[in-house]
Amino acid sequence: MKMPAPRTSPQAMVEVVNLHKTYGPLTALDGVDLAVEAGQVIAIVGASGSGKSTLLRCINFLDPPDSGDVWVDGHLMGFIEGGSGMRRASDREIRRHRADIGMVFQHFNLFPHFTVLQNIIEAPMAVRGFSRADAVATARELLASVGLAGKEESFPTELSGGQQQRVAIARALAMKPRVMLFDEPTSALDPELVDEVLRTMRNLAEKGMTMLVVTHEMSFAEDVADTLVYFDKGKIVEAGKPSDVLRNPSQPRTQAFLQRLLRRTL
Amino acid sequence: MNFALLAEYGPALGQGLLNTIFLSVVTLAIATPIGAAIALIRETRIPWIAIPAAIYVNIFRLLPALLVLFFSFYALPQFGLRLSPMTAAILGLSIVGAAYMSEDIRGGLAAVDQGQYRAAKALGLSYPHIIRRIIIPQAIPLIIPPYVTRAIIMVKATSLASLVAVGDLTGEAVRATSITYEPFMFLIMAGALYLLLSGALALFQMWAEERMARARRPRTSLTVKAAQV
Questions:
Q1: Residue span of the structural domain in which B218 resides
Q2: Which residues in chain A touch residue B217, judged by CB atoms under 8 angstroms apart?
Q3: What ipTM is given for this predicted complex?
Q4: Are A88 and A78 in contact (CB under 8 A)?
């Protein structure tokens, strides 16, 4: 039985309460609290190894946290409401809730032996039980919306990195997720391909999708995100309006990080 | 070449060849699914099934196959289990072969990018579904080369069965030799027939690799063909 900690933002689409995660001697998350309202876009920045990606993997339980609570759309991840408290969710129950959370990876991770269309319809058919016709119709719509109409029968290796990442976004959206997690979605792309992916993400944000985006693209963070959080050593050390955090970071660690980033871009 | 002797012992060698083929086919047919199952079990990393599987593999991978064969033929009768030479040979060779094969198959499974598991899991797909639809199809091209090499080694290792009284190709060639004192002719004959058998497997390997290479670039090969026309 588990008694979840009280929530500060019970209506938030995603709320993380005092999340901890260690890998052996390494502390990846050291008490993270974060609330994301429905339709909000959160940009998560910080040095590599600061725990940003771990946070995303803990939210959809790809990597279950050691302790702390993850609420997604009113549901406590990893647990099921029982008679007198919360019991641990079965693997099947975790999978059902995980399917409500879309995830996009740095290296796209498309299934190379499937066509673009098969990549998109596999999970909706297997997990959601959609008919093939419905799944294909949804897939075609999504491909059109990410600017890849006509690429249904291509294989991932025939596409550019930017196109692959847009297929990966369509694949995640085909599950009709409530939240989208982006783990450095443009970090593996050639610079000239970054914009097409960011444009797709911006469209998605404008349509009201709740998004958590781990990124090094500061201009995207500033233009699109409602909130920017800065991660350091498994903790959120600064959070606020992106323009405020980027222009006037209050924490010395944030200042140092942004200065390094700025030097690199110049 | 003494063709009269060859004609006299030809039927025996033919029977030996058939026994070798039978032994090879049955051993491969048993060892392959067991090896695949062991590899999949070990990949789950669920301790109570993965650890016994690892122990099995490491015992039989590290023992001489001949010792295992001798054990199944000579030692099992002490426990009241008396097997025919052929059955004992199939048992011993399958047990050892499955252990080796599981390592080849596991290597292929493990070589599939871990990001594929993560992406499939994030979509809510179940572990069996991920293995069946995402991992195995990508692992097969990686498994085929070591698998066929292993199958060739196992076909050649069936010659050990001659030491537990199976009249296989080696057994018949050695018997003919010891009667006629014509080792050269009979061993060359047996060698040629083994080359035919394992050569067929090697050809299968080339064909399979060629086919998979083409399947992996479906568009390119089509465009190339179109360009040539």
A1: 3-228
A2: 157
A3: 0.92
A4: yes
